[in-house]
C-alpha cells in the first residue's frame, strides 16, 4: 500500500522586491547579483519560485552598484514565507562648515564626490543623496569664494544613514594691531585693507585709499 510522507519544504518566491535599503525603502534599481544558500546547501542565484526546506537559508552574495551590500541580518527560514533583506545601502547628507565648525556665510560653489564604486559626480551645494552603498566616500575640488578649500581629511566611511560634516579650509581672521616694538596700540587704525586669496579686497577703507 503506498504511503504518503509530509516533507517540510515550502514554496518561496525570490523577487527583486525582496531587496530594500537599510531603512526598508525599495531600491531604485535591483542588485546585479545575489546568491541564497538553502539549508540543503543549494545555491540559488536567480529570481523565481523555489521549494526550500525549513531551516536557515543565507544570503551570501548581494552586489549592488558594484559593491557588496550583504547585511548583518542575512538569514531567513522558509517557514516564515518570502524573505526581505535590508541591504547596506544608506542615505547620506553633506554639511559644509568652516574650520571651526561654524556655518558658512555663503554656500560653496561646487564639489566632486566619489562613491565606493568609483563613480564621481559634481554637486553644486550641500546635498542629500538617497541610497548610497556602504564604503568609502571621497570629496574633492570643494570650491568656495573662487578658492579650493577641501579639508585635509576628505574621506568618510559610510556604515549608516547620517550626515557627513566637513570642516573646510576656511578660517576667521581677527586683526591684532601693534606698534613696531610689538606693543598693542591704544586704538585701532582708522582704515585698512586686505586681499583674500581669491583677490577680494576687504576692510574699512578710508576715502582715497
Overview of the structural elements:
- This protein has 209 residues and is mainly beta.
- Helices cover 0% and strands 42% of the residues.
- The protein is built from no helices and 19 strands.
- The strands form six sheets. Strands 3, 4, 6, 7 and 8 form a five-stranded antiparallel sheet that branches.
- A hairpin with a 5-residue loop joins strand 18 (194-195) and strand 19.
- The protein starts with 8 loop residues before the first strand and ends in a 7-residue tail after the last strand.
- Residues 204-209 have low confidence and may be disordered.
Please sum up the structure shown.
The protein contains no helices and 19 strands. The chain is an all-beta fold.
- Shape summary: rod-shaped
Annotation, overall tally of beta strands: 19
Individual helix count: 0
**End-to-end distance:** 113 Å
Strand fraction:
35-45%
Q: What series of H and E elements makes up the topology?
A: EEEEEEEEEEEEEEEEEEE
- Summarize the amount of helix as a percent range: under 10%
Radius of gyration: 29 Å
Class based on secondary structure composition and strand pairing: mainly beta
What is the residue-averaged pLDDT? 89
Low-confidence stretches: 204-209
Main sheet, how many strands, which sense, barrel? 5 strands, antiparallel
